[in-house]
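Worked Example 4.2. Consider the chain below.
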Amino acid sequence: MNRETPSRILALNKFIKLFKDEISVQAEISDFEKNLIQNVFERRFLLQYHDGEHWVKLARTFYHFINQGSFLNAKEIAISFLNTANLMQFELNEAYDQARCFRDLKGLPVFKKRIQNALSYYKLLYERVYRLVISPIVYGYFFYSKSRDKLLVPKSDGRIVLSALEKIEFWKKEPDRRLSYGLNSHIRNAFGHESYRILDDGLFEIWDLHPKTPSIRWGPEQWHADQLEALCVKLEQSIEAAVLSICLYSVNNRKLIRAHDWNPTITPPQLTRSDLKSFIEHVANSLCYEMTKCNIGEENVLVELKTRPRGIDQVMEIFEGFKGGARKYLQDVKYIEVLNITQVLGLFQAIEFHLKGYKAITCDIRDYEGSLVGSASIPVLSLTNLSGNNSPLTEARKHLSIDTLGTTKTWMKRTKMPVAV
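Applying the procedure from the previous section yields the following structure tokens:
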């Protein structure tokens, strides 16, 4: 069973404490926001960031733009948000994977490899991740400022041109370069055009060529690997501030978006089999199952899940250490019985979007001792009948081609928010 770290368990507490004045009484936190919030706070704890005040101010500034824009055009901002939400997890996952390599090399005396890796990582953050997560925020400013500048409107891929941030900084009454924290277009361009030369002792020379002529429009400058890595860290923090502002918008507007049935207009790329398997495992784990098998063929997907034994109802003690002491939290943990069929239908709904191109999905459930409990299968084309389905469970089950789960049950872990004592 996967065990959560204290930093992940306490992430929602910290999020609510930081932004409680911005959270609506209609707020609703789903697994989407919870997972993003946990990732952000766990990374900040592990990496020991020390600029929390700047980071919170940046997240609040971003939320102000998207929130004010939503007041003026709720539908357009919601669709921009949904497009970003549909794509961002793929980009963030790739960034997290590359960040591991970045940090494995960070500070080591292998300068050539460090510099090349950091330049590649910076380009990924700049070109793919930040342009995406900042998009609904800049679009919010477009409506909020009543601008006519199309540079502030998301492109067909859902991303924004980052030079839009420079314009916003210029238009602000008190420009402080906060929105451009970690941004350096010359560094990004130099790597893209291979306009750099690695020197001795961790130094490298870098310049930016004019796009239409061979002349140099910036540089050459000498940088050290440490400076480049510090720039990457700054941009990481800007991205995480944008992610938190998107989470804040999402929890406050989830009910509104659902009530109006607004949907994204951009389809994310189809997952590879490896990524689809990882995603199914993540969803299964959130439903308190252990995935023991996942066979993804050309047409069909077969998933085998194992139930988990009941845990112990308890009040769990959590200790958060910090400089000068520690803080204690208490969290109620209970285990309740739920129908396997309800959980499996939830699994089908969660992964529906990523099953396009397949014909059917089947899920076998085994108990924690390995005995088969039952199975459920559904044609992929019938999954749309489950989306937003508020009809009785008996009606939803009619869309299944195989259903032998009956009224069998499994144990589901339920936790309350930790309380400081």
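The longest strand covers residues 325-339. The mean pLDDT is 89. Compare this with Example 4.1 before moving on.
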